[in-house]
Amino acid sequence: MTTVRPAFEAAARLAIAARTEALFRSSGAFREGHFQLKSGRHGDAYLEKFQVLQNPSATSELCGFIAQHGRDHDGAPLVEIVAGPTTGGVILAFETGRQLGVRAIFAEEVRGDDGSTRREFRRGFQIEPGERVLLVDDILTTGGSLLAMLPAVEAMGGEIVECVVLVDRSGGKATLTSPATARTYPLRALWQLELPTYEAGAATCPRCTDGTPLHAPGSSGTGV
To answer: Cis before residue 87, ω within 30 degrees of 0?
Structure first.
């Protein structure tokens, strides 16, 4: 079993969080209003990660922070593969993999005949049994994208060392427990904040109540 590198010193973690926040805010990626999130829930703040990820230097800097979770104390890679879900996770996986000097792959969402969805590694991507995997993603709200990747990695025999996201907007409440094996994996975030989400409707969502126009940004709609 691979030993995960101990958590960074508190000062270093705070510095990384502050820098991540600064990059999101300076790029206009942190937005306030009334938004329908990918999960279907509503929120009054939205993180448009592609406003950051469109900047190669910012992306490289953020992936450098992620890559620290994939190295041991001597700087050698702890992992052999970096994997992420489509779409933002693809960019992060490949840049993090480049910095670590390891392979990078991605899992796509596939819809079954019964209408259910799952994540699959396609395009000839393979994980050999016992290979150590670092999972990465952009914004974590409920953890659905990463949760859907866990069975895909486990089915190939990969060993998930850690899961790292740019931003955890759940305030640290989210956990990653595989629906296939019930195993819980370490989850880290560069920047953690608590942004509440609401069921749609005037009875539950304050912005629905006050009539603020609803936007469905990113891949879930037409954008803001």
So the answer is: yes
CATH of the domain at 177: 3.40.50.2020
Task: Return phi, psi of residue 109, to 5°.
Answer: -80, 130
Q: Is residue 224 part of a domain?
A: no
Distance CA 8, CA 29 (A): 26
pLDDT greater at residue 2 or residue 27? 27
Q: What's the CA gap between 113 and 129, in Å, rounded?
A: 29
Q: What is the DSSP letter of 181?
A: T
Q: Give the tokens for residue 192.
A: 């953690």
Residue at 5 is within a domain: no
Looking at the chain, the whole-number percentage of residues with pLDDT higher than 70 is 93
Task: Write out pLDDT tens, residues 88-103.
Answer: 999 999 999 999 999 9
* Region label for 157, one of left (φ > 0), alpha (ψ between -120 and 50) or beta (otherwise): left
Which helix (H) or strand (E) element contains residue 133?
strand 132-140
